[in-house]
Amino acid sequence: MRHLLGAGVSLAVLCLMGGAALAADCGITSGKVAILSNDFNALRILADAAKECANDKVTVTANQTTEHKNLQVPALTVNPAQYTVAFVANNSIAPLLSADLVRPLDDLIAKYGQQLQPNQLIKVDGKTMAIAFDANSQHLFYRKDILAKAGVQPPKTYEDVLAAAKAIKDQGIMQYPLAAADKPGWDLGAEFVNMYIGEGGDFFDSSSAKLAINNDKGIATLKMMKALTAYMPPDYLTYDADAMKAAYTSSKVAMMDGWGSYANDVIGPKDADQNVATNTVLAAAPTVGGNDIPAASLWWDGFSIAKNISDADAEASFKAMMHALDPSVAAAHPDAAPWLMKGFQPGAAQVGVMATASAPDAKAYPMLPYMGLLHTALSNEIGDYLKGSKDEAKTLADIEADYNAAAKEGGFL
Amino acid sequence: MPHRTFLMFILPSLLAMLVFIAAPVVSVAVQSLFIAHDKVMVSVQSCGPFGCSTNVHVDNKATEDLQKKEPLGKFNGLGTYLDRNHLAVAEVGAIISNNTGLSDAATRIYALPFYRALSFTLVYTFVVTPLAMLLGFVIALSVNAVSPWIKGPVIFFSLLPMIITPIVGSLIVYWMIDANAILGAALQDLFHDPNLYLKASPILTWIVLLAYGIWTNGPFSFVVFYAGLQMVPKDTLESAMIDGANRWERVRFVVVPYLTPLATFIALVQLMDNFRVFEPIVGFNAQANATSLSYSIYSDLNGQFSQLFSSAAATSMLTIVGVVILLVPVLVRTWREFNLKVV
Q1: CB contact under 8 A, B197 and A94
Q2: For the whole model, what pTM was predicted?
Q3: What residues in B contact A357, CB-CB < 8 Å?
Q4: What ipTM was assigned to the predicted interfaces of this complex?
């Protein structure tokens, strides 16, 4: 008993000392670093790396929640802002830019950002407003054992995907071979955006917020989405991205258009069903309609620094983030995400994203302030179309009317 | 009691209501009359890891100046109430003047977001309220009749649906009715239909939501009716028994008339509560098949990146108007009774 107590005390002391030893010298003299971010593995790794800069003169905290998009605008509007660093992506940076809540980083980059690659700098109107650290996109996950059993070739286009699903279903191998994240809300809109990009369409007129999806490409997009649902479990309208991943990893479906950030969970050694893990192939997102554009939008994740904070805090935050974005961090976690840091070699889990991103015509999710309104309009109206209550023309007309009402209220039209 | 004493007595509550209820409602009403200023857009080039493109962005400086001059926004009058996402006056007019029959007009009006939310809200309110009251009444009668030994546990189990946090309860039931889970699979077996997915069709989703509503609202009626049952005079019941009335007739002619004022009170509270249905829709992920007015307010404010304050404010005001309309019959009746008493 006494030995146990002694051992316990020594362990506690070691942990405290070990904790102190982990504190790194990020070159910060003083300041406060408060991070607001989404909650997935890659971002947790970076926040932990940033926390290594904490010492008695510098505080580093992180609020990592899936609700970050709702928190960021109010939290950064107050003066002083509640968070100094906001982790953003193509879509979540738009409201921060519109409300002028983040500061240009050019002078901080000139002083402390030598490690950054040119493609990591997100520039708007010549000023760097964010720094990207990883790329993400949705791409095709498929079970090569099930496809081999059905005798189909790996699908390269969505038409191939339909044929493969039909073969699997007809041969009785699996009742519902496909899964997609079709839940109204963010996911359903994202599915339309991806497919429409694959069809080669433009969302808006070139220099205004006027919607431009009411055309043949929009109709083809809707038709393809509907055709795919025939091979999905009937409650597909309740599947968000996590439910889709759960269906895939529990072998309920054979193919899914999943996020690259899920790849490690699906094929990694920990917790994954080994049968699914070894038989999963990560392929580029399929093309559609005979085009060469992957039917997926490319995303970058990055960070911005708030405007309504002191310059000392901004400098401290930038230095802490530079420590977190050190290439050694990316090298230590090669399977977490397709990092953009210098010298990063992609691991097995990033094959799908790299294949999608390296296609010459791959497009990024539009970084426009009114894209969110379109995304919401898509989510509101396509659910009914998939259920069969209206046809393509009416759906597109309704999307346009919904978007116009919201854009007028938002002052964009 | 003298008016002055009465005023002093209710002054704290009155102040609290003014500050926490009346003032916010007025502020929301004012907000609903304004929309955001027209954003000044400017064409810029933006670059990222995947290349450069020319986009349109908001000109922060100009928009900020406009915002400082008129912080409330651009005055829109009743425009937000009449636009497509609310009363949709123009669209409804077009549908009514140009349709191929009643069912076509109804389908097209149903496709408009506000009317879709309103129809589910009204169905939920008018189905769940009476059935939940009936369920509560039946439970109260049964509990009143069981032996004292097991009365305690029976009351506890009857109250459970109300005690559980609405979101947690609806999530639990949602996962139980999944096709791979116990209730969903059992139903598939029972009906010999492997394609029976409760979450898939709108009709089944509505039925599940209504059943869930009745189940969770029953206990409230049970509690009030049970308390009322204790006040039913035993003499009247005994004399009814002596006169040869059976159990059903005793309930119908003695108990029910005594409990009618309580039923009015419960109906009032439940109508107001059920009109604001929200948690079951979130817990059951049912927004594809069923939305309510409260859910529209939530999705306006939780929308991807811009919170549509004016739209949410307009829907809030319309909800308040809806509740007032629902309560008008009861209020009229109370007013008449008050007048009679005064006379």
Answers
A1: no
A2: 0.81
A3: 50
A4: 0.74
